[in-house]
Amino acid sequence: MTQRTDVVVVGGGQAGLAAGFHLRRRGLDFVILDAQPTAGGAWQHAWDSLRLFSPATYSSLPGRLMPAQAGALHPDAAHVVEYLAAYEKRYELPVQRGAHVHAVQRDGARLRVESDAGTWRARAVVSSTGTWWRPFLPAVPGAASFRGRRLHTVDYRSPRDFEGQRVLVVGGGNSGAQIAADLAAHDGVELTWATRNSPRYLPDDIDGRTLFDVATARRRALERGEADTGGVASLGDIVAVPPVRDARDRGLLHARGMFTRLQATGPVWPDGTATEADAVVWCTGFRPALAHLSPLRVRGRRGYIATDGARSLAEPRLHLLGYGDWTGPASATLIGVGRPAREAVAGIADSLG
Fold it and tell me: Shortest CA distance to 207 belongs to which of 322, 57, 81, 331?
């Protein structure tokens, strides 16, 4: 049976819930389709030691502050999952679980959303599937010949899974630094950390609050027609959260340049020397999870969708939230998604009349 509604939100993580909050306030009829069986979005799949960059009150969705976590300035992923589940209940958001969306198509005056839980015809669609579900693995010569374990950030949970092993961590961003620090602090693991460039740590007093302020200031400057300051990227790459700072200050984090290839036993470096490894953890980032939008043919050659704010230029009934700065400054963060969600829903409400 095909159902009708004003708005379908694809994805029930933080961006989808922020959109739901504003849709509820506007009095629009909507449904949130989420592929996950339980609340919490990608946070419920994060590694054990992951911590937010900011204190709880600076990591909140619109309408409800995140409560502090006892004994922790920066909450862990489990605390975020509890907050998102409580947020969903508080605002009685209509989330359909186990509703993997595999296609959004034009259907006359509406968009047709096809999912494992049924089909909806909507006047507007908000896509908020994020990036966690599409990990990026670079093409490295010899990767297929490596006999050890090959994992991505999404697969990593705890250094206890690598007891007595030699682990190669690849990537110089935040996930690479945090996972390298996690492994380096564990006595039973021998770590090699490979980065394309030397790690750039942000000053120790900078956390998510500053990053959000910088992203907001950059957006305002661009709106005024001023030169691009580079935003957060101008400050550095790695937030020195306490575990990373501790491992760095103890001399446990030693990054070396990138290897040229992998062989069966591990990486081979530019000088021809080889290192043995039992596992490789690729902390090499993500790409937007947009396969469900393929029937609309709105993606450019680099895979991104041209937008005006959150609205697709090629399909004005489609809005995108939470994929990064191209859908709103800091829109992939808890605190940053609120404003683009509000603006997207305001535009939807205006277009629906």
Answer: 57
Q: Is residue 104 a contact partner of residue 295, using CB atoms and an 8 Å limit? A: yes
Residue 81 in contact with residue 66, Cβ under 8 Å? no
Q: Return the axis-axis angle of helices 242-249 and 174-184, rounded to nearest 10°.
A: 60
Which segments within the chain are labelled E, that is strand? Answer: 2-10, 30-33, 95-96, 101-107, 110-115, 118-127, 149-152, 165-170, 189-194, 255-256, 261-263, 266-268, 279-282, 307-308, 311-312, 318-320
Retrieve residue 190's tokens.
């021998």
Pairing mode, if any, of strands 95-96 and 30-33? parallel
- Answer yes or no: is pLDDT of 233 > 60: no
Asked if residue 290 lies in contact with residue 284, where contact means CB atoms within 8 angstroms, the answer is: no
Nearest to 196 by CA among 169, 214, 223, 218: 169
Neighbours of 131 (CB within 10 A): 18
Nearest to 341 by CA among 123, 134, 127, 133: 127
Contact of 264 with 145, CB cutoff 8 Å: yes
**Assigned token pair, 101:** 């969306």
Q: Which of 213, 241, 198, 278 is nearest to 74 (CA)?
A: 241
Give, in order, the Cα–Cα distances in Å from 73 to each of 79, 244, 251: 12, 15, 24
Q: Is 170 helix (H, G, I), strand (E, B) or coil?
A: strand
List, for residues 300-348, the tens digit of each pLDDT value. 877 789 999 999 999 999 999 999 888 987 889 998 999 999 999 999 9
CA–CA separation, 133 vs 35, rounded Å? 11
**CA-based nearest residue to 262, from 136, 138, 135:** 138
Helices (H) and strands (E) in the chain, counts: 6, 16
